[in-house]
Amino acid sequence: MNRPASWLALSTVALTAVVNTAHGDWASDGIAVCTSAGVQLSPQLTSDGSGGAIIVWEDKRTPMSLIYAQRIDASGTPRWTADGVLVCPSQFGQITTRAVHDGTGGAIIVWEDVRSGVANKDLYVQRLDAAGTPLWNAAGVAICRADNDQSGPKLVSDGAGGAIIAWSDGRSGVGDIYAQRINAAGTPLWTADGVAVCEATDSQGGVELIADGSGGAVVIWTDFRTTATTAQDVYVQRINASGGASWTANGVAVCTAAGNQTGTKLISDGSGGALIAWHDNRTGTLDVYAQRISGSGALLWSADGVPVCTASGPQFNAQLTTDGAAGALVSWQDQRTGSADVYAQRLDDTGNTLWATDGVGIATAADADASPSLVAVEGGAAITWQSVKPSGDSDVYAKRVGVTGNLDAPNAVCTAPHPQGTPRLIADGDGGAIITWDDDRGRDYDIYAQKLDGPTSITLQEFNAASSSGSVLLTWRLAMEALPLLERIQVQRALAAAGPWVDLASQQPSLSMSFEDTQVSPGQTYWYRLLLLGSDGVQASAPLSAVEGASAWRTRLYPPVENADGVVFRYALAVAGQTRLEILDVSGRRVRTLPQDLRPPGEYLMSWDRNGEAGTRVARGVYVVRLQSGAVATARKLILVR
């Protein structure tokens, strides 16, 4: 597929750019997941583990609301019964469904069920295999049938083919938080009707949870315990694989500031703890705040959280995903201009904001942009939202944001007639995303889906920085296939690896390029990067190279870095010399030689495509890379795992 350039991103350790299309990969305006008679609403989705998705929704093809599901493969083909399989044959009504991948191509699905009466909602689950066949009791397995309502269920995988479910529970007369674990065979493992996560006074609700990486979960909720029914706070608890509480009884207070804290979201911090975001009206208008809690239950950032956005007007509907570097990407609906827009911000692992104050505008067009949802993809995140026209019709759009805050152009996911809304998305495992939404083009609301393309790799073959008296010479080489996708290249410099960056020059792309920076001071360390600008005018960082002005270098070979396209070698030369990189196997036999001619002192990046001298790809295993420069040689171990 020939794809236009719209989003380019280079990591600081790889010599590969990724170029994403601005278009969906399936049919224009999406593929039909369900167009059955009656109304289909509120789609949710989870991965099928093979580049596709399993989508579940509330369906009114009969008078009662029932739960249906469909599997869409990576090419956009529905794999199960046309218009979906019925998850539960009970005709008493099911709503508020969620799903999680079961690890073998199927899904575990939870829902609210009124078979015991509309004033006594219970929770049931079912597991569908990769073919859409129910694996547990035909009518579902009861998770909780206690008195009064059990509502708002959420679930995560337990890492062993089962799931952990948490919900708001009314058995005591007010809302408490309960949880249950079910194994791969459909057997509840904890106390019947669930274990109490929080039974504090007054009401708790709005539950969310994530897996803790050890068979348990971190559960978050909003809580009225300190102010009865006048203001909500945020609390969190970690429950272990046996259902026991790991932190303070009834939860750790994340935020008890004045006013309401609601709309909580959380993601794993990779260490048993969590990064948390919410919207907060401590100042009288809604803002976005965040906090991090460790695996032991300690709050790691400022008391009551750090501000993500405190711009004028309300900010709410915060969404959260990982930035791939122990921090988080946050998006939200923003009305600082008086109309609805979508903004985003990046936080590092210490709670510092890394982009512009109060975030970067994701969707700020004249139409009202609402209901954002985001997911981490290669180099950043994909964000989708609903764009509402003055006529009342609405469309679905998406955009990528890189970890440096760079944006692509808006992608029109669906602009079919009549309203499309409540978009949700997941990563497809190949750098792209799958989006689903409810769609009124047929005038009775159906379910549609679309796939956003993943990245197309473009190899930047070398990036070199050599210092001499009073200047630094940058040179780089592009792969031939990069030229049609690029409009220009921006050279930037900084005094630290994290920036801030200053533009030095802009050049038209060619195969071999160079730039000499003469505004340098002896002994100063400089960092350089390239910004590659595609046809949509969107930029992203090239690899960084550190240079010490005119100071002396030490010949060294840095640890090699393997990526999807091969291996990147970074090395420095103390003196000018004829250089050569050799890859050897463990017996000392030469696998490949990468000659680099005469090089002045400086730092260099070189890529290897993992092909041997005969042009065939070398096997995974242990190798040695050896740098020879004049009479000086150095070597490092190289382990290929891909």
How is this fold's topology laid out?
Elements: E1 7-9, E2 16-20, E3 31-34, E4 40-47, E5 53-59, E6 66-72, E7 85-86, E8 94-101, E9 107-113, E10 122-128, E11 141-144, E12 150-157, E13 163-169, E14 176-182, E15 195-198, E16 204-211, E17 217-223, E18 233-239, E19 252-255, E20 261-268, E21 274-280, E22 287-293, E23 306-309, E24 315-322, E25 328-334, E26 341-347, E27 360-363, E28 368-377, E29 380-388, E30 394-402, E31 411-414, E32 420-427, E33 433-439, E34 446-452, E35 456-468, E36 471-478, E37 486-494, E38 502-507, E39 512-517, E40 526-534, E41 545-547, E42 556-557, E43 561-563, E44 566-573, E45 577-585, E46 590-599, E47 602-608, E48 621-629, E49 632-640
Antiparallel strand pairs: 1-2, 2-35, 3-34, 4-5, 5-6, 6-7, 8-9, 9-10, 10-11, 12-13, 13-14, 14-15, 16-17, 17-18, 18-19, 20-21, 21-22, 22-23, 24-25, 25-26, 26-27, 28-29, 29-30, 30-31, 32-33, 33-34, 35-36, 35-47, 36-39, 37-38, 37-40, 40-41, 42-44, 43-44, 44-47, 45-46, 45-48, 48-49
